[in-house]
Specification:
Blueprint lengths: L2 H11 L18 H15 L1 H4 L7 E5 L1 H14 L9 E5 L11 H5 L8 H12 L6 H6 L5 H7 L7
Parallel strand pairs: 1-2
Helix pairs in contact: 2-4
Pfam families: Abhydrolase_3 (PF07859)
GO molecular function: hydrolase activity
Organism: Psilopogon haemacephalus
């Protein structure tokens, strides 16, 4: 689905682009996709000289669920002294939190295809455990205990 944009970026930016075809939910539940992306990134970083890439210029990127995976890979690799440091991460409408599906961005875009608010919650559950039976509870916010919601309010809030 992303081959054309990857080819465009590689050609126009004179870049080496590695696109990871990770396993998808619901057939492959978490952490399969994460493990695929992490494994591919580590392999690339360990063999970087083979690709003729400057180790100081490696960027991970992803959109939607891929944005979530790019962020998770970045966090994991941040503490790895045996690999070059990532230069940056590019996250395009990433799924980064599942605490509050009622934030302004969800409200403003709740009826904007293809990522309707209900679809985002449904896909998040598919990714995590393959069971979307609790989509309604996720959208209502009843999946997070009140004390935990207060704890994470510092990071996940409309402000």
């Amino acid at each position: 689905s992303h081959e054309k944009i990857c080819r465009y970026l590689a050609k126009e930016g004179q870049l080496v682009v590695v696109s990871v075809g990770y396993r998808l939910a619901p057939e492959h539940k978490y952490p399969a996709a994460y493990e695929d992306c992490l494994g591919a990134t580590i392999h690339f970083m360990r063999n970087i000289e083979h690709y003729g890439v400057d180790p100081a210029n490696v960027i991970v990127c992803g959109d939607s669920a891929g944005g979530n995976l790019a962020a998770a890979v970045s966090q994991t690799l941040a503490g790895r002294p045996d690999l070059p440091k990532l230069r940056a991460q590019i996250l395009i409408y990433p799924g980064l939190q599942a605490v509050d599906f009622d934030l302004p961005s969800y409200q403003q875009n709740q009826r904007v295809p293809p990522l309707l608010r209900e679809h985002v919650a449904f896909f998040a559950l598919q990714y995590l455990n393959g069971d979307a039976a609790n989509t309604k509870e996720i959208l209502e916010g009843s999946h997070i205990p009140p004390d935990m919601r207060l704890k994470y309010r510092m990071w996940v809030n409309p402000d």
